[in-house]
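ok so i was messing around last nite and threw this chain in just to see what happens. nothing serious, just curious
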Amino acid sequence: MAKGIAYLLKKRGSKPSFYTKLDSSHSFGMTEKGGMTNNTVISTEGRNLMPREHRYYVYLLTSKNDKVMYVGVTNYLERRVHEHKTKMVPGFTGKYNVNKLVYFEETSDVHAAIAREKEIKKWRREKKNNLVVAVNPEWKDLSDGWFEISPFGRDDKRDDNGATREGDI
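result:
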């Protein structure tokens, strides 16, 4: 990544605004070999461009009649549920029509999320059912109202670019 930044800086001939030159008493930054001098540091302005905290979700989906269950992990729950509902990604959930979100957990630790997904996958079905019932006793689709999807697997209120179509507001 550093090589890419150095290349862009050389190509542009200048540094982006979020890089700040410090006096020689500071020892931040990369070596001259990496393309930036030893007294270059990303300023507070530049650091604020980076996300503060990542979110990860462990989730359970079921089929319409709750007979088939799927356990997954993602960093963007709404997008991933939409992918399941529209069958954008071929696989188990598309084959068995598993697209009803019945449970999810949120964490900021990706390793904890993956470990939790693996833990739940090892459970017997009864234990997974008890997990769902504890927070969603009626097994309602927790994603109801997140997006409008037609029975044909597409969002009829949006065009191909995601813009709302006229008359569908």
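not much to say yet. DSSP finds six helices and five strands in the chain.
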